[in-house]
Specification:
The chain is α+β, with helices and mostly antiparallel strands and 78 residues long. A two-stranded parallel sheet has the order 1-2. The chain has two helices and two strands.
């Protein structure tokens, strides 16, 4: 198992990626409602892994929608 607790730790000091596209089978994002601000979008786009987003405050704003980031129906928490 590998645990990352900071997005900036995904690259080595020389700028090279530390993990391959298929390195993770599962990515768990705590406070995933923050994903609407594009903070995690590069991670979602790069890795070929199942995503699990945890949040107590999902957002359904028109231009910043947590549900769409995780390919869910709007306003239907799962």
């Amino acid at each position: 198992p590998t645990m990352m607790n900071a997005i900036d730790e995904t690259k080595a000091k020389d700028g090279m990626r530390l993990f391959t596209v298929g390195h993770f089978d599962l990515i768990i994002i705590d406070e995933s409602h923050r994903s609407i601000y594009q903070k995690y979008q590069a991670i979602f786009d790069y890795f070929d892994a199942l995503l699990v987003g945890l949040t107590a405050t999902p957002k359904a704003d028109l231009d910043k929608n947590t549900y769409r980031v995780f390919e869910l129906e709007d306003n239907v928490p799962t």
